[in-house]
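Hello again, I could really use a second opinion on something today. I've dropped the whole record in just underneath, so have a look.
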Amino acid sequence: MSGGVDSSVSAYLMREKYHECVGATMMLFLNEALGISSRHPCCTFENIQDAKKICESLGIRHEILNYMSEFEERVIKNFVSVYESGGTPNPCIECNRFLKFEALMQHAKNLQLGKIATGHYAKISRDNSGRYLLKKAKDTSRDQSYVLYMLTQAQLSNLEFPLGDFLKSEVREIAACQNFTNARKHDSQDICFVPDGDYASFIQNYTGKNYEPGNFVDTCGKILGCHKGVIHYTVGQRRGLGVSAKARLYVTNIDAADNNITLAYEHESELFSKGVKARNVNLIALERITNHLDARVKIRYRQREIPAKIFQTDSDELYVEFSEPQKAPATGQSVVIYDGDVVIGGGIITERVK
């Protein structure tokens, strides 16, 4: 329970269904320690108090769980490392993988509780063979199945997503009917530990490093200008480059070892990739992809799905071939595979295939 409306309504729905519940708030970091200053950061006293008040109104116990060291080790350090290597991390996926659905689930087992529930917008069902499936939420504008593709069969069997069949407006209406003080509370849009969206400043403050400027180069290696340091840029970025050009330029490659960032015009083939390779593979709807799979994929959270052929080239490697070349897939992001509303699985992009 983060103190937000989604997890609060989830707690209410679970209390109504099972009667015996415990509300758990995960303390992941101290704002002051990370140098965070924002009106709406995560892990604040205000949010913890909101969660506690909701639990009191529901008549359930409230716990605060300290996972700060695990969060720093698994999420923050990975976030920094991926940016330093020229990739674009997705810390929400790593937090879900290691904290919400590993550490929290283990805590629930220690308490001998049957299931855990969260305020994610997604659905869980079973196919005819009894295999658990992860599906998109009813509210497609809120669907979070992309950041849940790492869930295992064992985890899905002990999970519930109570909001999967609700629209966000319906969730707020339930909260208002229950007189929850957070019924109209805003939704967080940023990464919880970077609430102002300034990833580079966060990394510099966290590491204490000064990242050396380097060269912007074109696809032929010609120097176009000077960049501020690789952590300030992501593949596919076109704003804030500070390079004068006759047409739009995009970041197409970040070479952290040589400290060069390659830029390409939007019409240049170097900006596009015909496919990607991915590792840290997790498949939900099936055990393994044999031959190939025709499906649709997302290579970014907010991107539309695109048709693709998926090949499993190793036990922990996928090759995804797009139906048409895609603009600047980013290493460190996840490619997630869909068959209609069903999440087949996915992995972390490690290589772009031209």
Remarks:
- Helices lie at 5-18, 45-58, 68-84, 91-110, 153-156, 168-177, 199-207.
- The CA atoms of residues 73 and 79 lie 10 Å apart.
- The first strand starts at residue 22 and ends at 27.
